[in-house]
């Protein structure tokens, strides 16, 4: 009689280990994405702060020009506005670069999720195969038991006929 241990038991264990690793990787990728998104939010807040500062300085310049002041003071204010404008461009660049990091992290997470789905499907296929295999083994065992019972019944019947 055949062994009733599933022959692909080790394959299931290996594939399940791969699923576990893929789950850990997906969690790691999700954490990386969250960190990148948080960093993006911080950079956007810094950029918005510089924008707000620039807007305040523009309003201050307009107000000063309306009141009438020396051209040296106006030139000084315009020069400062140029410095603020350069800083704003730097902040915009940082935000843009961080957005690309967020996009990359998002892409990596999607790839990790797809890999996890694929590995889970592989495990499901083997488990489905195992269920079918178990049904077949169960049928074979029942058939074998029925044959053994028939044999025992015929032996008992033969013994009774000889005694009689």
Overview of the molecule:
The protein has 164 residues and is mostly helical. It has helices at residues 9-67, 71-163. The chain has a single domain (9-163), classed as Helix Hairpins (Orthogonal Bundle). Helix 1 runs antiparallel to helix 2 (71-163). The protein is rod-shaped and about 140 Å long.
Radius of gyration: 38 Å
Cα distance, first to last residue?
A: 36 Å
Percent range for β-strand residues: under 5%
CATH class: Mainly Alpha
Instruction: Report the total helices.
Output: 2
Number of strands: 0
Overall domain count: 1
Shape by Cα distribution: rod-shaped
Q: Indicate the CATH topology.
A: Helix Hairpins
Helix content: over 70%
Class based on secondary structure composition and strand pairing: mainly alpha
Lay out the secondary structure.
Elements: H1 9-67, H2 71-163
Describe this protein with a few key phrases.
164 residues, mainly alpha, Helix Hairpins, 2 helices, 93% helix
């Amino acid at each position: 009689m055949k062994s009733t241990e599933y022959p692909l038991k080790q394959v299931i264990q290996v594939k399940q280990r791969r699923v576990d690793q893929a789950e850990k990787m997906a969690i790691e990728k999700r954490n990386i994405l969250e960190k990148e998104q948080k960093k993006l939010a911080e950079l956007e807040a810094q950029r918005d702060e510089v924008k707000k500062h620039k807007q305040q300085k523009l309003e201050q310049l307009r107000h000063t020009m309306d009141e009438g002041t020396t051209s040296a003071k106006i030139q000084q204010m315009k020069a400062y506005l140029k410095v603020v404008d350069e800083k704003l461009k730097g902040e915009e660049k940082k935000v843009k670069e961080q957005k690309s990091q967020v996009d990359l992290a998002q892409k990596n997470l999607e790839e990790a999720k797809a890999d996890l789905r694929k590995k889970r499907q592989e495990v499901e296929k083997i488990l489905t195969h195992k269920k079918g295999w178990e049904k077949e083994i169960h049928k074979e065992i029942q058939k074998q038991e029925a044959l053994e019972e028939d044999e025992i019944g015929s032996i008992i019947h033969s013994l009774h006929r000889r005694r009689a």
